[in-house]
Amino acid sequence: MSSIEPTDLLAAFFLVAMLLGMVPTVASLVQYVIIGWQSVRNNYSKCADYTPRVAFVLPAWNEADVIGSSIDSLMSLHYPEGHWRIYVVDDASTDDTPAVMREKMAQYPGSVFHLRREVGGQGKAHTLNHGLSIILSEDWAEAVMIMDADVLFEPVTLRRMTRHLADPSVGGVTAYVKEGSFPGNLVTRFVAFEYITAQAAARRAQNVLGVLACMAGGAQLHSRENLIAIGGQIDTSSLAEDTFTTFKTQLAGRRVVFDGNAIVWAEEPDSLAALWKQRIRWARGNLQLTSAFRNLWFRRSQHPKLGGVTFGVLWFSVALLPVFMILGSIGIIGLYYLRPPWAWSAFTALWSATLVVYLFETLFSLMIDPETGKRAWLEGLLFPGLVSIIIMLMILVPPSANPLFNGPYWSGDVGWSWRDIPVQVMLAWPGISTFFAWLVFRADRAGAPHWLRNLLLIVIGYGPVMCAISFGAMAAQYKNADLRWDKTVKSGKARIRK
Amino acid sequence: MSVDKESEYDRLMRADRKAEGRLIWSELISLVFVAGLVAAYMLFFPA
After folding, report:
1. B45 secondary structure, DSSP code
2. C-beta of residue A477 within 8 angstroms of C-beta of residue A284
3. Within a 10 A sphere around the Cβ of A400, how many other Cβ atoms?
4. Where are the domains of chain A?
5. B46 lies within 8 A of chain A by CB
6. What ipTM goes with this model?
7. What is the per-residue pLDDT for A400?
8. Taking 80 as the threshold, does the pLDDT of residue B34 lie above it?
9. Average pLDDT, whole number, for chain A?
């Protein structure tokens, strides 16, 4: 019997690392496959024509450009007269927010309220809590809508959300937040497509699983009973207060529901620099949550759904995305040196599977939300970046006709040479694209012309930018960087696109 | 704005059930389309 050599163990390690690199792709595919079940397994059978009195809470800090149009959109809701109120919690704004609020209170007496904090700057959660403590101290509100000051509601969105609260087992409902910047640019269209995948698709899949990772902070409807059950306050210890609230609601025994037909519109960052700041905050918040609920993961005894294996894999495939990408690259590069024929098989299998998943998910995403698909189909196709698309297409070329696949490199017959470099870049691209995406962000932050930023973004891809942001969040958490609430500046560019 | 609660609610429910019902067909169309592409490729470029 032949003995196991150390190189065999090393090759096995690289193979496992490469397979781990496929976890995010497989997790994403699983989500997309189960979305269709939402057609038969949704919460509509438990809905009723229920129109509770709803208090909208809008945290605002220097929102003079957007708060007026948000209030106007909220006051034109199709909802029973007198059954909703708007509470703007002004976090000591230094711009014209108080003046705008005086005007709106005069325009909508008894429906719009201005709750002013004289000392602010503690962040969104503290601001929300100031409003919640006042709202819950009165008996009027039967439900509370936590939202962002710039979010625009379609007239029937509230009706679409409150119907789920007719089921007392539902504690919270969230809407589909769509990117609505007008006229928009390449970055906002990438975000628009990303929101199909991350919300319209992923959250429907989570509905089917009976567990939701996050109720969007931009439109989060709670029953009064649920808010009281989770302490009547929003978590202030993290940067992901909306996700904490979602987890606490489910841990307290109530369900949360995503309604993909209840739509609100928001202005999202239009530059990589602004996007980076916003998403670092979200990603760090998710890491904080991962740590705070460390006793929950993969333990069904803690919660049958949140502690389940499926949800755990879905959660960590996003939270640890760069780790999986880098492991995959290390694995395949290792195999390339140790077992070249294995590397060739692994490489073609990995990218062939990625191509099939990419085609399926992109096409399905465009059909899930055709309105966004019409304006962001190109960004959907370019989501992984031109380099990744070229690698996927190269797989389709027979090896005999492809110089990169037809050299001596894959046989292991020759030693390393400079000619290996393009092959190795190709092999390691899932991991090293993270570094290149960071360079694109740095170029944008340094003031690179928009045409150059756009060109680099198309070549490297929006997906790798998301991966780089996750990596940046991990680095910031590891360094224990300051937990600053870096507010995303909104300028009133959002429109309801109908 | 006050509206006819009953009719608006029924209309929303009908539209939304229909929209969710379309998901399964969108998924099947996507799967069949991609499977067709894979089959066509394997037909023209057999291993």
Report:
1. S
2. yes
3. 7
4. 6-27+316-478, 42-310
5. no
6. 0.90
7. 73
8. yes
9. 92
Instruction: Give pTM, 2 decimals.
Output: 0.93
Residues B1, A356: C-beta atoms closer than 8 Å? no
Among candidate residues A43, A42, A134, A119, the one with its CA nearest the CA of residue A87: A134
CB contact under 8 A, B38 and A356: yes
Beta-carbon separation of A80 and B5 below 8 A: yes
Quick check: B18 contacting A, CB < 8 Å?
Answer: no
The C-alpha torsion from B24 through B27 and B31 to B36, rounded to 10°, is 90
pLDDT at residue A482 greater than cutoff 80? no
Q: Distance (Å) from the C-alpha of residue B39 to the closest C-alpha of chain A?
A: 12
In CATH, the architecture of A42-310 is: Alpha-Beta Complex (3.90)
* B15 neighbourhood in chain A, CB within 8 Å: 261
Mean pLDDT of A360-366: 98
Closest C-alpha among A369, A163, A145 to residue A259: A163
State the Cα–Cα distance between residues A297 and A301, nearest whole angstrom: 10
